[in-house]
Amino acid sequence: MTFGTRLKQLRKQQGLSQQELASRVGLNRSTYARYETDDNQADYETLQKLADFFGTSIDYLLGRTDVPHPLTAGEPQADGSPAGSRDLQAIISEAPVLYFGGDPLELSAEEQEELLRHMRLAWMLIKEKRQEHKASLATARGRKPGGRSS
């Protein structure tokens, strides 16, 4: 399968027009259309954008593999996070356009920061609730929250 055929297939699976996809990855529609017809080749940066957008590898886009989502070895990344995971803060700040419920969120840098502040607050509240739940379970079992019996 050619690069253009694979791009067209992935775009149609997402239910997007060429214009919608081009806008989401920051390309001109006519440039993107030439990729789909194999009349033009994407540079490395564009290949990375397209692979990230479709959640696949560059090798898959180029037809070097037929496995769209390569398996990871399960080794942690350099920052210690599990293989295949991405930092949410990086996703928000690096994505040209984010989508929520199918609606595009074209956020300014200030709006991205505000979104991250709200997410940090929500995460703090979730962690508090988890701790409270853990403490109540320990109390219900007749133990102090530290794990010792009374």
How would you describe the overall organization of this protein?
With 150 residues, the protein is mainly α. It folds into two domains: 3-61, 434 Repressor (Amino-terminal Domain) (Orthogonal Bundle); 88-140. Helix content is 54%, strand content 4%. It contains seven helices and two strands; from the N terminus they run ααααααββα. The chain has helices spanning 3-13, 18-25, 29-36, 44-54, 58-61, 88-94, 109-140; strands at 98-100, 103-105. A two-stranded antiparallel ribbon has the order 1-2. The N and C termini lie far apart (67 Å).
Chain-wise SSE layout:
Elements: H1 3-13, H2 18-25, H3 29-36, H4 44-54, H5 58-61, H6 88-94, E1 98-100, E2 103-105, H7 109-140
Antiparallel strand pairs: 1-2
Helix pairs in contact: 2-3
Brief account:
This protein has 150 residues and is mainly alpha-helical. The chain is 54% helix and 4% strand.
Keywords:
2 domains; mainly alpha; 434 Repressor (Amino-terminal Domain)
